[in-house]
C-alpha cells in the first residue's frame, strides 16, 4: 500500500485523527510505564522538566545548551515537558499512519509500528541530545554506549506501544 502525502492526514475524517491521537497517547503512556519501571529499578531517566526547560528556552531564542540540567529553571517546565512529550507521541503516531497508510488503522501490524518506534530514536540522538548538551547520540555522556542502547530499547517499547494501542482501539470498535 502506498503512503499518503502528509497533508492528506488533515483531510481524513475527524474520527481518524482522534484515533491517531489515542494511539499516540496510548503508546506514550506505555513508554511512561516502562520508564517508571526503570526508575523503580534504579535506572536513571531524564526528567520531563528538562524537555520543558529546553522548549521554554526556545521561546527566548536559546536552542542549545552546554547542559540542560544546569540551564536556568523555567516556571511550569515540568508541565510543559509532559505536554511536549505527549504531543510528540501523537505526532509519531501520525507519522506511522503516513508511512504505513491509513489502512494500518484497520489492520495494525507490528512491523511498521515497531519500525517507526525504533526510527524515532533519531529525534533524541540528532536533535534533543545535542541541543541539551549530551552530544550526538549521547556521545558526551559518561556511558554513551549504555545510553544509546537504553534509547533504542525505550523507542522499541514506544513502537510496541503504538501497536498495542492500535490493537486495543481496534478491539473496542
From TrEMBL:
It holds the Pfam family DUF2938. Keywords: Membrane, Transmembrane, Transmembrane helix. This is DUF2938 domain-containing protein. The chain crosses the membrane at residues 16-38, 83-107, 113-131, 152-172. It comes from Roseateles chitinivorans. InterPro entries: DUF2938.
